[in-house]
## 1
Amino acid sequence: MKPMQLNILKNLWRKIFKMKKYNVEIIEKGIVIGPAFKLNKTDKPIHKFQGIEKELKTLDKAVNITQSKLKHLYDSMLKDSKDLEAEIVQTHILMAEDPTFIDAIKSKICKTKISAYEAVNIVCDEFVTIFKNMDDGYLSQRANDIYEISSQMKSNIVNQKQVMPKEPSIIITDLLTCNDILAFEKNDVLGFVSSKGFSLSHASILARKNQIPTVCGIENIMDLVKNGDTIIISQNELIINPDEETIEEIKIKQIEIENFKLELKKNKGLKTQTTDGREIQVLANISSSADLEESIENNCQGVGLFRTEFFFMDKITPPTEEQQYQIYKSVLEKLNGKEVTIRTIDIGSDKPIEYVDYKEENNPALGKRGVRVYLDYLDLFKTQLKALLRASCHGNLRIMYPMIISVKEVKFIYKQIDIVAKELEKEGKAYEIPPQGIMIETPAASLISDELAPLVDFFSIGTNDLTQYTLACDRENHNVVLELDTRHNSILKQIKICVENAHKNGISCSICGELASDESLTEVLLDMGVDKLSVSPNRILNMVTKIREI
Ligand code: PEP
Ligand code: MG
């Protein structure tokens, strides 16, 4: 085709498919450009009712296939050391086996004489409504998992196979599921765009872990996009069929981001010291093995916060002492002598667990959470302490306790340490008592930090909760997002008080809340004397670079 003809065609094309821009919700941020590939999971295949017996058989077969596919996926995840992904798949296995769910589908087939496919659809909607109406944010987001399992069962009923894109593409779907992400990972997916999405859903968690730019929130996305349309995801903007000027701008932005990342990599492994020679430790906040790998890859100087509660959530029974011991031991060994601060479970509030029976609370953020749960569930706490004391023989461990507000709580914890140490002694298991510190994440703790400092080996300031409790703004409540000023003077003043009291008592004070990675405050925090900063694995190199500039 001659250039003139090509231009005419391009102009015509632009007129027909005008560039459209939409604001979207970010699940994992990033900038990508590529062709659209639509997943037509919502198209209802023909599957007519063929009699109760036949439909029940079809359902049984589909349930068995779904379960065995999930189990296969689970095994392969474990083999690849993808523990977090494996945990998510395990939740789906439990759901696919749940008799309440399966029996409800069977009874629908028998009572209303509809096909297995229809019955799964209807029961799925019923369950989703129940879950969505739950007051609990975490549980209501599990609705996505029901969608996910149902959609897998339906595919297996009609024997639907997922077609894969032929080139790296941006996947467009009504609902993003974990299996989509797991299936497409190897096929070079550039990004995901979905109508429905919940930031706490497992699919979202996976998208973030895999760092695949993902956005959601456009109701009729499947109608707006055609296969092969050019799509741009640029932070919170989705562009369909961009004009050439926009494509050029985006390509420049992508190059800038890549160059910035390369610049950051140059600082990998360099000393984190300011230009006048002060050394600051940059540590990692982790909650999964993927986080750990990324932190090691970015040459973290240790782990400043290991959020262990994630190993307790999404399970119907708690991990045993032995299972926990193996996890902690392996983290310590992988860090090879570097400091690892493991926080005991911070459950309750937005992090509930199945086997802890929370009484209904009007305001869970001000209710039973963190250390407050330990007294009622002493065995849970003591089992974790035992695993930690045993793991301590394998590296440079420090134990940290969440949500402390009083000296009394610290003394209660030390008493439990004494008790479990004696139990381990009796059981003939090797153990060590490592340094122990507390999170300063309540105004009460910061205001009595002079009384707490002589009792503990370190402070770590949890600015996320400290901000929520100081400003009286629920960190999960979107209505008060504007009031949640993370740089509020009241927070900075408390950090200063805590650092002073820590240093007066010869202990260190670090920050492990999100404020630790706020580069506009790094200099202020260092001036106050903060000793260590613990940040998300993907912020480590940014912090190293920032500190070296100060
Ligand atoms: C904090 O509160 O700042 C913190 C690090 O703990 P989490 O975010 O896990 O509550
Ligand atoms: Mg906290």
## 2
Amino acid sequence: MTTAPAPSAPAALRGHIVTFRGNPFLMPPQDALVDEPDGLVIIAGGRITHAGAYDATIAHLPPGTTVTDYRGCLISAGFVDTHVHYPQLPMIAAYGEQLLEWLERYTFPTESRFGDEAYATTIARKFLGELLRCGTTTAAVYCTVHPQSVDAFFGESTRLGTLMVAGKVLMDRNAPDYLRDTAQSGYDDSRRLIERWHGRNRQHYAVTPRFAPTSTPEQLELAAALLKGDDTLFMQTHLAENRAEVAWVTELFPDSRSYLDVYDRAGLVRPRSVMGHGIHIDEHDMCRCHESGCALAHCPTSNLFLGSGAFRLFDAMDARRPVRTGLGTDVGGGTSLSHLQTMNEAYKIAQMTGKRLHPVQAFWLATQGGAQALHLDDRIGTVAAGMDADLCILDPNATPLQALRAQMCDSTADVLFTLMMLGDDRSIRATWVGGRLAHDRDSGGTTGM
Ligand code: GUN
Ligand code: ZN
């Protein structure tokens, strides 16, 4: 089995620290922002030991520690992608269909190859390399129905030392023969994978019924049985993404009050459950998400690309019953692994629904909000002492156009806004994982790739 990297050496990064002290949907965005224009982050044993103003923090630098100079760039927590499919990387940008036809025509044939562990390892390696190039250090990831696809993914993540959440897709009906498990084989395979990977190094297991139409009620119940007695396990699935899909679920589960209720009756609506999309849900379902602690993953590039609809982000974040919400790229339904691009499209969807997504809110969703959605905010999502040293370094001057626009910026919020509207993987100067440099744009790539 792949081994994790050796403990990282002490390190320190100097630059403009941007992080959060609260939820900017529930307080004025400027009050939620921690903004340290000349900051220092000191790292030891894979964790942040100190973070603050350079002048006040330099006294804590252990003798002999090299300070990497990122002045001119922002130091942010690494991005958290709360919903993505690694096996769909090769079929990103597949033309012409909406969800159900897109699954049949492109997705299922592409996923059929992941019974081959060598192929799965190749794609997992490329996928993780791309995530790091985009500044994303944690993701909730769907593998395929094949247990080998999970071994390949966690093996590569272990090698890189990334904190990942992932699981085997469960699918015992309404899918091609070559991609179906059974309720029992899905349970048995998942149990073995949980024993092999969950809590090992930085890997976390998510029980992963693909969505209600491809699981029998028996499979959903066995998925809940896998979770029983272990609050640290995750659950991920899709919820109310597309109108034709919702109509199909109504036909398949006539006794359920709503799509969410299908999962709720099975015992799958709980803390550390992450529902992809949740576009076509009602107030009752929003309240149920709020009280249960389950999360929604807002996937704007996918929702636009597949023509699924407009997620009501500000409804989800309603202060009377806020729902844990993060950003998801949903590649291959999504068109980019970059959370900067994802924020860009989230801003435009909010505009279409008459709302204004403040850049501080967008960056919070991409970092601390995503970490809260996964109930991992005690480890990741914030630049502060005690947190894991998973960081991304953002360059507001990455291209000539961005450098031109940056001259107009008169606030940190505006710098963040230009990054989210104009930025992409070129804006990621570097990515640090567990206190180790994992991607360095200017020295040509991702270490260990
Ligand atoms: N619903 C069920 N499976 C999928 C998938 O792979 N991608 C998206 N976007 N929605 C789904
Ligand atoms: Zn998805």
